[in-house]
Specification:
Structural class: alpha+beta
Family: Belongs to the glutamate--cysteine ligase type 2 family. YbdK subfamily.
Number of helices: 15
Catalytic activity: L-cysteine + L-glutamate + ATP = gamma-L-glutamyl-L-cysteine + ADP + phosphate + H(+)
GO molecular function: ligase activity
Keywords: ATP-binding, Ligase, Nucleotide-binding
Order of helices and strands: EHEEHEHHEHHEEHHEEHHEEHHHHH
CATH architecture: 2-Layer Sandwich
EC number: 6.3.2.2
Largest sheet: 7 strands, antiparallel
Radius of gyration: 19 Å
Length: about 375
């Protein structure tokens, strides 16, 4: 059988290796990366100067994808260390920060249009691209994975702190991200034609600069023949990022099979999906989530088990089932990135020490 390819984009935080404070040095890091290896185009600038993004190549083997994520993180750290900073896979900065928006035309338009929402939007995510055969299949997938995306958000939760304080959330990044006017869950589109018409109508309002500002939880990629799933925090550990990517591929394949079999998507309203996303952001895997089938509260372990059962056949067909089961069990034992960060603060009493240890874990 043809195996879908998966690519991952991760946004990393640039920090001072001693103080843990964010450093606005992305341009210098990118220049250093270009100097070290002119043929590499893995790294890119992001909205804020304290951020650095990389993208993996499409992979069909999830072990190879995990290895590439780890390699890209170490390469990013090497380039950053060359100019006096380092990288941390943190979805928000634990320490206070005054973000600086990049000077290119696009970012300045966003700053002018959205004001403080842009200036405060220094959050680091993980985007997963899964290949699809056509836009029609892609939209059918987007319609059918909607209820399950909040579970991926809970698995990836890695942003408990905001401006030096505990936010009360496991993924505060996702709450900040919702400030964009095009962000969040979508209604059922039903066809590629309706999807593209909705996107065109949104851009035509003038509230968005272009199609790149369609920030749906899952969207058709502009550049690649993929569905791009955008709900995850950047994960503290590379193996958690690989787990999210593997589950995303399982969801896409399962949804495509349902579509081909004539199964209709679950008709949950956007209002309920927003509540499911809020619940995942609030408590991660520590307490309860909304079950994707019923939209009622259930223990996070039960909901995670339901996700595994939902994608079991797809994972078995690609040889990923046992590895994913083990990774989920490990995650429940040791906690998400948010739980690790809070445990570090409890042990050390210092957000600086939290950042220092997360720098190490980013490259572990």
């Amino acid at each position: 059988m043809d195996v879908r390819t998966v690519g991952v984009e991760e946004e990393l935080l640039l920090v001072d290796p001693e103080s843990g404070e964010p450093r606005a040095l992305s341009a210098a890091v990118l220049a250093r990366a270009a100097q070290d290896d002119a043929e590499q185009d893995v790294f890119e600038k992001e909205l804020h100067d304290q951020m650095l993004e990389f993208a993996t190549h499409p992979q069909s083997d999830m072990g190879a994808l995990r290895a590439e994520i780890a390699r890209c993180r170490k390469e990013a750290a090497r380039h950053a260390e060359g100019i006096g900073c380092t990288v941390a896979a943190l979805a928000t900065s634990p320490l206070p920060v005054s973000p600086s928006v990049g000077m290119n035309r696009r970012y300045q338009w966003m700053a002018d249009q959205y004001g403080i929402a842009t200036r405060e939007q220094m959050v680091m995510g993980c985007h997963v691209h899964v290949s699809v055969d056509s836009d029609e299949e892609g939209v059918a997938v987007i319609d059918r994975i909607r209820p399950w995306l909040s579970v991926l958000a809970a698995i990836s939760a890695n942003s408990p702190f905001w401006q030096g304080k505990d936010s009360g959330y496991h993924s505060y990044r996702s709450r900040v991200w919702q400030r964009w006017p095009s962000a969040g869950p979508t209604e059922i589109f039903g066809s590629a034609e309706r999807y593209h018409r909705r996107v065109a109508d949104m851009v035509a309002t003038g509230a968005l600069l272009d199609h790149g500002m369609i920030y749906f939880d899952a969207r058709l990629s502009q550049r690649y023949p993929t569905v791009e799933i955008r709900v995850a925090d950047v994960c503290l550990h590379a193996h958690t990022a690989a787990l999210v990517a593997t589950l995303a591929r399982g969801l896409v394949e399962t949804a495509a099979r349902e579509w081909r079999a004539g199964a209709e998507p679950a008709d949950h309203s956007v209002s309920l999906l927003r509540l499911a996303g809020w619940r995942a952001a609030r408590s991660g895997l520590a307490e309860e989530l909304l079950h994707p089938a019923t939209m009622r509260r259930m223990p996070a372990r039960t909901v995670l088990r339901a996700l595994l059962e939902h994608v079991e056949e797809a994972l078995a067909d690609t040889g990923d089932l046992d590895r994913v089961r083990e990774a989920c069990a490990e995650l429940l034992r040791h906690g998400t990135g948010a739980q690790v960060q809070r445990a570090l603060l409890e042990r050390t009493g210092s957000l600086r020490d939290v950042v220092t240890e997360c720098v190490r874990l980013t490259q572990a």
